[in-house]
Here is the input.
Amino acid sequence: MGTDKTCCLSTSGDISSTSVSHIVGSVLSRSGSVAEAVKLQCDAKMPQLLKFVAFCTQNVDFPFFIKQKVIKAALLFSILYSYESWFTRSLFPASTLYMDAVKALLGVRRTTPNLLCLLELGLPSLSGKVRDTQLRFIEKLIA
Here is the structure.
């Protein structure tokens, strides 16, 4: 990693060094650590989770299948954007967001065991979901 962080001058303005960049929804960090990029992406997506939790608490009479479509179509794909490239063992920040979204969908307390919530919805754990998607991703690259 280079240590030169001086500002470049251009005709349209200054170009300065940053420690984090957001490119097409993905987070790139100067350190190059995938675990740090996952944490930064999850921090950026936390407001979306809070909106979903508020939606679920205010609309308790909405049909369950509508809430389930919202979580699958909007929230999980946003939180897990580009997760096929998360080759790291540190998925804790993403796993926390994933489970908070699942528990909000079910309307249970945060202290409810994760496995029970996943079994109730028939969803895989986040590590299993990431592993399966990565396997398909690598198979497509090889083929």
